[in-house]
Amino acid sequence: MRKILILFAHPRYEHSVVNRTLIDSGRQNPAVTFHDLYEKYPDFNINVALEQDLLISHDVIIWHHPFYWYSCPPLLKQWIDMVLEFNWAYGPKGDKLAGKTVFNTITTGGNREAYQPEGRNRFAVNQLLLPFEQTAFLCKMNYLPPFAVQGTHRLSQEELSGHAENYRQLLQLIADGDFDPGSLKNHELLNDYFINTTNYGR
């Protein structure tokens, strides 16, 4: 079983029904380690050695965060700046994360239509996440499309439950290693994998 590390960054987690629902669904999996950065480092004083040890001991890394101004909350950015060190994560001798899988799980207030060329945000979320993809590339990691729950302010309970179930299934699929990374990369969002009813419920 592949070990999954959810690096969660949300400065107002207690107020986010959507993120709490996703996390409650995902952390049921014994392969998942849930690591709340704002809980661990309220003073932003990141323990780099601890974080690097966590990365080494897991096979799959998930940057789980709300989509703040087309990026992540500041603590996750600081985590990337400090933990992914030169000649450790990248550079001539930086190969500690090589071959690991990584992707973003994000929540957005705007719906999917708002994140299109004709929408008010002008770009799809996976385009706006290109700095994360490039970071993964430099670290020789396998970057997958994001899992995105969008239009969070208008989600019905049924819709939210559906997203949470898809997230649970995605994490189980990844933990089991029962997927083709190439087929997942063919989707704009990992959510789209579950639109195909032949894959749903695997």
Describe this structure in words.
With 202 residues, the chain is α/β, with parallel strands linked by helices. It has a single domain (4-195), classed as Rossmann fold (3-Layer(aba) Sandwich), CATH 3.40.50. 35% of the residues lie in helices and 15% in strands. The protein contains 8 helices and 6 strands, in the order βαβααβαβααββαα. It has helices spanning 17-26, 37-40, 48-56, 74-83, 125-128, 130-138, 157-176, 181-185; strands at residues 4-8, 32-36, 60-66, 101-108, 142-143, 147-150. Strand 1 (4-8), helix 1 and strand 2 (32-36) form a beta-alpha-beta unit. Helix 1 runs parallel beside helix 7 (157-176). The longest helix is centred in the last third of the chain and has 20 residues, at 157-176. Mean pLDDT is 91; it is low at 197-202.
CATH class: Alpha Beta
- At the fourth level of CATH, the homologous superfamily is Flavodoxin domain
Number of helices: 8
Radius of gyration: 16 Å
Describe the structure concisely.
This protein has 202 residues and is an alpha/beta fold.
List the topology elements.
Elements: E1 4-8, H1 17-26, E2 32-36, H2 37-40, H3 48-56, E3 60-66, H4 74-83, E4 101-108, H5 125-128, H6 130-138, E5 142-143, E6 147-150, H7 157-176, H8 181-185
Helix pairs in contact: 1-7
